[in-house]
Amino acid sequence: MKYNPNEIDAKWQKYWAENQTFAAKNNSERPKHYVLDMFPYPSGAGLHVGHPLGYIASDVYSRFKRHQGFNVLHPMGYDSFGLPAEQYAIQTGQRPEDTTRVNIDGGVDKEGKQIAGYRKQLDKIGFSFDWAREVRTSNPDYYKHTQWIFIQLFNSWYNKDSDKAEDISTLISIFEKEGNTNVNAVSDDNIIAFSSSEWNSFSKDEQEKILLQYRLTYLAETEVNWCPGLGTVLANDEIVNGVSERGGYPVIRKKMTQWSMRISAYAERLLQGLNDIDWSESIKESQRNWIGKSVGAMVKFKVLSPESLVQSEDLGLGTKDSFIEVFTTRPDTIFGVTFMTLAPEHDLVAKITTPEQKDAVEAYIEKTAKRSERERMADVKTISGVFTGAYAEHPFTKEAIPVWIGDYVLAGYGTGAVMAVPCGDERDYAFANFFKGQNGMQEIKNIFANVDISESAYGSKDNVEIANSDFLNGLNYKDATQKVIAELEKIEQGTGKTNYRLRDAVFSRQRYWGEPFPVYYVNGLPKMIDAQHLPIILPEVEKYLPTEDGLPPLGNAAVWAWDTNQNKVVNTDLVDNVSIFPLELNTMPGWAGSSWYWMRYMDAHNETEFASKEALAYWESVDLYIGGSEHATGHLLYSRFWNKFLKDKGFAPTEEPFKKLINQGMILGTSAYVYRRNDTNEFYSFNTILSPKDKPFIDPKFVRGIKVLDEISSNDKSVLDDINIETVLAAHGASNSAFPIHVDVNFVNSSDELDIEKFKAWREDYADAKFIDVNGKFIVGREVEKMSKSKYNVVTPDDICAEYGADTLRLYEMFLGPLEQAKPWNTAGISGVFGFLKKLWRLYFDDNGLIVNNDEPTKDNLKSLHKTIKKVAEDIESFSFNTSVSQFMICVNELSSQNCHSRAILEPLAIVISPYAPHIAEELWSQLGHTTSISEVAFPIFEEKHLVESEKEYPVSFNGKMRFTIKLPLDLTAAQIEEIIMKDERTQKQLEGRTPNKVIIVPGKIINLVG
User: Which parts are annotated binding residues for ATP?
Assistant: First the structure.
């Protein structure tokens, strides 16, 4: 009876689906365990073998927990809103909802392309998902709850006294009774104070404008990453090297009125919560840095009028604009300030720039707008800036300090302004030296006693003694900080403050394919649609591009207005601003739906609530979350924020959503290359390039992306080691060059040989190509890099499952290396794992059928089994999946050599291997006579006694040289061992009638006869 993985896989996948084997119960006497994967975005490209890595790991863990008696929730869904689907719709003229559905369920798209479908691909790998709880963020029955959460945020404010979000009605009540002077809330800056009588006299619109300054989601003019090419705002993590990750379009900084989320209200709780969760230290540190807590002082520097103007009012400065506010963690260095730097986007720049500097400042601002915040933060080498022509007054010395702009200062961090202390900060030091002697840039002042700053700044707070600083002279960092804050407060030009780098999150996107806001506008002010009328469903549009006048794509909708009488969406041309009003044209960002999805899995079919209180109370939070580390400061931060908010409002049962987090590494592809001359249609194989005279030659270090020389002999190799490739080209007069080109890895065999005929048929311009090879073998170059469709190095799990079966794929991916590390894929290694499964099968079957017997297991049989039980249980709990696979191989090899076919061994072995290879395990279990699934059979109990050695194989030495070994019971005394050894005929042969001078015996260790 042969092992046929395709038949076995199909049989048991059908069984699991029909019997809902992995359906979790919301009420169970068993302890609960919630295992979650970061759900995928369903692209048309489908899964490659790198995608299931984390899913396989979580599935192994989930299956193991079921064996341990847990009620396991292991769901799956799709993060199905997003920019890629919209861009594909624009390019192909298809509806995003249609392409998204085909990408998930499979089928044929409008272009006739066959799409496998994520669901079918996932099913083929044999995951134990509870598919009855599937969610899709783009389904109205899901996003109605996302809209509802948005309304809750809008109707909430953050009370610093209670340190939680509260209903906006409690804030209104305070305003009505006592005004806002005693309100301790997270709010916009520069809130105007008002009394209760003033509040009650305000019009409804005026009151709404004030409340927007307190709401947890609010409208504000914000600096955003605007991508003209995509016609939308991008999040920081959607930008790479200053261009959009999707399409590579330029991105600029631009001010727009946007919805924002007041995540900054939760900065301290987000920071402290990291102490209570089992996440990697690297992810925690990323979030700590992103939140960026710093303690210091807020300092106000008065803006001085230019000499050509008499009063600051001539600059158009209001009372609050007469000062530049700066947050600093080093107020002790205030006497070292020699200039100030504003972010180019700072509101004051346009107001204080002098006419003489206007052109230079505007040119610099335009240039800076093309760089993302991340790029500016990361670039510590480039020094650039422009003098505004304005000066500010030092609060103590009254000295005039020049005000510059520089892109190393960010509008979104602190106040968007810094007091520059070159002697104590490296970037200020470099800036001051670069512009030394220009536009009033002062000499660097040294305010540290006994410190040399001639070569670099002194940034340490340790061992500081302040000098040249008036009333701070002789003080250390701590004392000077306290003293200067007290003095600033006396003159009302500063105060102590804790600041956070974390900025409020922009929540608007100028896209079509996203959650519609449940918002309409009356007199330009936002109003929430009542929750009973949700969902507000995306309308049909003819085009997914912005309108001709620059409005978002929803501006193209013919039916997109809110009728307050009928409480429904009606035709846009019916807007009368009396009872029918315009709806919000932006949509929510991709992270909206993913910020709460784990709760929906708890009660996925609840039509009235996002989840019932009972379901939330039972499942509480995710016990294990597996996903990529690239979401550290995006999804993982936003989801913690939403969870904390829902906890404040009495909906979420826990403060943190994910107890334990593991980041799986990446499976890398092994790309293949050929080398093409750019002036002909000739292709050179890799072995040709590295061959001797009269062949094109290139040193291996230059293989990727560098020119190949046409007629340079191997003697030039040493030259290439030291000289730039272009120099060598010029020296040899070579005009021809070649470049590496990716080749589809499916055209290459395990010996790196290219199938030339397949390659020529691949593209029309390759049909008449000439191939230069060696000994009839055209060898490709190889390089390990990210698995990507664009690099033609993608291996699909479907192909692996079809050829070797799902269990081989699962075991191989776990065998590749530690879960958290990146590792290269090598299809050639698959056959070894497949061979192991066939060897496992042969323990149970021969050509005639089942060979399992009821023989009593031997000690060696039991030892092999229990070593494996112990190792696998420990490995799964510690997520060391690769070493479990090694142990399986060792165990099967041992049992095979022991000729073991005992049911007492092979039944528990099937259970132990089932989390990793569930299909073959189910089949073995069934063939052994069981009628129910193996999936919830109790995991075998490890018994230490089977690993306790009862015998010892002693090396027997004569004068220190080992001559033979002997196996003896471990409970023998030294005298008993000596008696046995002396009677052994091998001993007598070695002694040749002599009597040893000494017999050294250490029970359990050594036997040595001397003399």
Answer: 789
